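Example 3.2
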Amino acid sequence: MRAKLTPRGKDRREQLLRTSAQLFAERGYHPTSVADIVSALGVGKGVFYWYFSSKEELLAELLKAGNHELRKRQQQSIGTEGDSLRRIELGIEATLAWFADHRDHFSIIQFAATDETFAPVLARNEQIGLADTARHLKEAMADGRIADSDPDMLARAIHGVIGRLTRDYIIDRGASVAEVAELAKTFCLRGLTG
């Protein structure tokens, strides 16, 4: 990608990202070609290669950008909340709502998890999310709100619950985000507080 983009260039790049996300989710990553992406936008291949060197680079960027958007939604939801356990609840709600709004991204993550090419990006995204959750857990432990335990392990447990509920209920069954969030919060926090 070029170092500095004009506002128009930024818009075009975003169009490429959105269109490819939709096509990857609908058709799959491998069956979708660069030609399919640019055809859907009505532009030439040169436009694609101005912004991305390859389809692999584009998918890696989708994964990074999606994780950034998810974290931004979580941070906006959490705001200045002082209660560490409430921050975890708000983070759970924001995560489920974001994936409900970005089902295509969930499909892309599921594919990327099957291809070693994208393992470093997924691992980095996961580490960022786990560190955020572990930070809130450590604070809750320091405040005596939950028993001392391995915050990394607890963060992984929470992420596992959220990932599974997202896939099985939000994505596959179209369940209510509020209903799934309530179940997830109750399950995770009762498990933490005894």
